Amino acid sequence: SRFERLVLVSAAGISFAEAQGRRIEAAVRLFEATTAFMAGPRRLWLSRPKGRHFAFGRVFYNPNRIRPELLQEQMESGIRAPGFADAIRAIGGYDTRHRLPEIETPTLVVWGLKDQIVPVEAAIGYHRLIPESRLELFERTGHVPQMERPARFNRLLEEFLAGQGGKPPSD
After folding, report:
1. How far apart are CA 20 and CA 15, in angstroms?
2. Are 130 and 107 in contact (CB under 8 A)?
3. Which end of the chain has fewer CB within 10 Å, C or N?
4. In Å, what is the CA distance from 27 to each residue of 16, 22, 105, 119, 157?
5. Which residue, among 89, 110, 122, has the nearest Cα to 154 in the 3D structure?
């Protein structure tokens, strides 16, 4: 009752709950090792296409299409942020699936079809469990559709938040 609309973008809850922590710790260790590598003084990973692909290939469908300064920002405010690893560990043990059918707020579920962090099956799960939800899948898009397809994402979000129906926006 506190919200008029809800938007889920690549939300980890369902798939992480299904993993029940089995892969969570391994994923956290991989993130920590990767960030330690990328924190080096020369940061060659940011200036070279192969380095960007190595560092962000699982997050973005094509990390070389994202401006380097945006990738750097993702490092600082994202996976290197204090508490990131603890948050990932915590979500692995928290299963909300039984509560999703209680959501009465109009809900938009947005996902990249090539998401390697949270598989598209989770989007389908949210859509099936949340009554009257709307599912939007972005082709050739990974875990961060708002960065990979900003024009389409913003049009979709503006339309949904305004409560307008109609045909979904295209790329």
Report:
1. 9
2. yes
3. N
4. 11, 10, 32, 14, 30
5. 110
User: If DSSP codes are grouped into helix, strand and coil, which group holds residue 120?
Assistant: helix
Residue pLDDT, tens place only, 69-81 = 888 887 767 666 7
Q: Where are the beta strands (DSSP E) in 34-163?
A: 107-112, 134-138
Q: What's the token pair of residue 141?
A: 């898009």
Q: Can you spell out the DSSP letters for 85-122?
A: HHHHHHHTT---GGGGGG--S-EEEEEETT-SSS-HHH
Per mean pLDDT, which range of 6-10, 47-51, 55-59, 92-96 is the poorest?
A: 92-96
Global confidence as pTM: 0.80
The string of pLDDT tens digits covering residues 90-125 is: 776 677 889 999 999 999 999 999 998 888 999 999
8 A C-beta contact, residue 12 and residue 116:
no
Residue pointed to by tokens 């049009």:
155
In the DSSP assignment, the letter for residue 7 is E
Geometric angle at alpha carbon 113, from 139 and 33, rounded to 5°: 120
